[in-house]
UniProtKB/TrEMBL annotation:
<keyword id="KW-0472">Membrane</keyword>
<dbReference type="Pfam" id="PF19055">
    <property type="entry name" value="ABC2_membrane_7"/>
</dbReference>
<feature type="transmembrane region" description="Helical">
    <location>
        <begin position="153"/>
        <end position="170"/>
    </location>
</feature>
<feature type="transmembrane region" description="Helical">
    <location>
        <begin position="353"/>
        <end position="379"/>
    </location>
</feature>
<feature type="domain" description="ABC transporter family G">
    <location>
        <begin position="1"/>
        <end position="382"/>
    </location>
</feature>
<feature type="transmembrane region" description="Helical">
    <location>
        <begin position="258"/>
        <end position="278"/>
    </location>
</feature>
<feature type="transmembrane region" description="Helical">
    <location>
        <begin position="182"/>
        <end position="202"/>
    </location>
</feature>
<keyword id="KW-0813">Transport</keyword>
<protein>
    <recommendedName>
        <fullName>ABC transporter family G domain-containing protein</fullName>
    </recommendedName>
</protein>
<dbReference type="GO" id="GO:0140359">
    <property type="term" value="F:ABC-type transporter activity"/>
</dbReference>
<keyword id="KW-1133">Transmembrane helix</keyword>
<dbReference type="InterPro" id="IPR043926">
    <property type="entry name" value="ABCG_dom"/>
</dbReference>
<dbReference type="InterPro" id="IPR050352">
    <property type="entry name" value="ABCG_transporters"/>
</dbReference>
<keyword id="KW-0812">Transmembrane</keyword>
<dbReference type="GO" id="GO:0016020">
    <property type="term" value="C:membrane"/>
</dbReference>
Length: 382
């Protein structure tokens, strides 16, 4: 039974209108819950059984016939809709209830956004600034990562094995500039790095809710997590290339491959943040596996295909593949480059677009992090 549904700021105002006041040095939510459970007798002359009826009459809802006995003398003046509701009255009460519920959710969402962006601390306490909180969270997240050293080592080991296997299976072909090996690389690195990045936010959702409700800076919390994860962003491309590059032996330099992989890992880490925050752990893991495979398969299609023609620029995999192929093609010179230009043109790649591909990957990473932060401070998961 509902006795109140609305903004937190109006709870005490509503109950005080019923004559129920909170004693000094007593937590209001605890006091109201004790009243609802019948542990504490209300001091307003009403019983806890009458509170649902008072809420119905306060909003103009019809009172069911089996609850008419709880209408006391003070509430008789409000009981204009006491009769058992007909079809027309039920429709009106449902519409009013729906509108009230919608407005309540809007106010709650507004209060939550204001709490994160427009802070007004009414307790006159000295709250640390964003910079101070960022340093604190940076130390805490760093300690958490050190305690997860075994899990991190397993991630690196899997990347080593993946690099050795894919480097052995996908040999460089002069006709395709090694695009097959790079296709496998984009899928493997995206999948493994996304799965690992999910742990950054998926495991701490409850802790974040509690601390943000106590005045924690969401921006400092998010930046600290991302800063510590940047260590993996730098190291994981080195770990993968240490095996893939020497088994695959592409024409492009180790530095060029590392730069492309660095941008790719930065991109997919931001996407993993969005999945971890917006979805539950199981569907987040599922999408982390499905997305790289589907997007990479689409990116390998002909540039004139419907998907690539209209949506190719929105797939990070297409930019990553193009950057890898261009870095490999730039190492061909003279007659070798001339004879391979046809293959490069069929793929729709341009040797001058290497920096553009890297920039697009970085932009994907930045935008995905902005989206992840927005989702974190606006959407409450159950």
């Amino acid at each position: 039974m509902i006795v109140y549904h609305g903004p937190v700021k109006k709870v005490e105002q509503y109950f005080s209108g019923l004559g129920i006041t909170v004693p000094d040095r007593v937590n209001p939510p605890d006091h109201f819950i004790d009243i609802l459970e019948g542990i504490v007798k209300p001091n307003g002359g009403v019983t806890h059984q009458q509170l649902p009826v008072r809420w119905m009459l306060h909003n103009g809802y019809p009172v069911p016939s089996d609850m008419l006995q709880y209408i006391d003398g003070d509430a008789t003046s409000l009981a204009g809709n006491v009769a058992d509701p007909g079809a027309e009255d039920t429709g009106q009460s449902f519409a009013g209830d729906l509108w009230e519920d919608m407005m309540c959710n809007v106010e709650l969402k507004r209060d939550y956004i204001e709490h994160n962006f427009i802070r007004s601390d009414l307790s006159n306490r000295l709250t640390p600034g964003i910079t101070c909180q960022y340093r604190y969270f940076l130390g805490r997240v760093g300690k958490q990562r050190l305690r997860e050293a075994r899990i991190q080592a397993v991630d690196y080991l899997i990347l080593l094995v993946a690099g050795a296997c894919l480097g052995t299976l996908a040999k460089v072909s002069d006709e395709t500039f090694g695009s097959l090996g790079y296709t496998y690389t984009v899928i493997a690195v995206s999948l493994l790095c996304k799965i690992a990045a999910l742990r950054s936010f998926a495991l701490d959702k409850l802790l974040y809710k509690r601390e943000s409700a106590s005045g924690m800076s969401s921006l400092a919390y998010f930046l600290a997590k991302d800063t510590v994860d940047d260590f993996n962003t730098i190291i994981k491309p080195l770990v993968y290339l240490s095996m893939f590059y020497f088994f695959n032996n592409p024409r492009s330099s180790f530095t060029d491959n590392y730069i492309v992989l660095l941008c790719l890992v930065y991109c997919v880490t931001g996407i993993a943040y969005v999945l971890a925050i917006f979805l539950e752990p199981t569907p987040a893991q599922l999408w982390s596996v499905i997305l790289p495979v589907i997007l990479t398969l689409i990116a390998t299609q002909d540039k004139d295909s419907l998907a690539m023609k209209h949506f190719g620029h929105f797939f990070y995999t297409s930019w990553a593949l193009e950057a890898f192929v261009i870095s490999n093609a730039e190492r061909y010179s003279g007659v070798w480059l001339i004879t391979r230009c046809e293959s490069l043109m069929e793929s729709g790649y341009d040797l001058d677009d290497w920096a553009q591909c890297l920039l697009c990957l970085i932009l994907f990473g930045i935008v995905s992090r902005i989206v992840a932060f927005f989702v974190m401070v606006t959407f409450k998961q159950k």
